[in-house]
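Bit of a strange request maybe. I'm writing a small parser for structure token strings and I need a real example to test against, not something I typed by hand. Could someone generate the tokens for this chain?
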Amino acid sequence: MACTECDFVYDLAQGPEVPALARSHADAYAELLKAEPSVLRRRPAPQVWSPLEYACHMRDVLLVQRERLLAARRCDTPVAEPMGRDERAELDGYGDQEPTDVARQLREAASLFAHSLDRLTPADWERTLIYTYPERTKRSLRWLAVHTLHELRHHLLDMRRQLDHPGAAAPSPGRREA
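Reply from user aminoacidic:
Good idea to test on real output. This should exercise your parser:
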């Protein structure tokens, strides 16, 4: 499976590499969050998140994915309920947050997620949960790790696109669910 927007290829063998990659991606986000705050808060279109909102989303994705991973280790095939990404952006005021705080929180969230992945045994990687998007499907923790890496790369591309080309619209975040 490959993403048509960012060319990410789901290679489940890459699962054990995700902890280090998650941490390095968080560092890349933190670097981008050093841009001028007014630029980070600017939405290129009303339904398209700003770079800061994408970073907040990724912080929350990492935290939610960690909780899903821990649930799959505690229970047999739990359901990964939708995280409510659009509601979170509004309710948590993503666009009003301080970029330096978000950079620190994103790094911490990546570290927490990576630590939980680092603790997986070979059998744990094959534990499953029910993922509900785009349809109810049983997924392994290996898939969850690789999917989270895809989210990290995809939204990093969204942020870079906007910061490199102000006014360029990235696809609406409503098209995908973490």
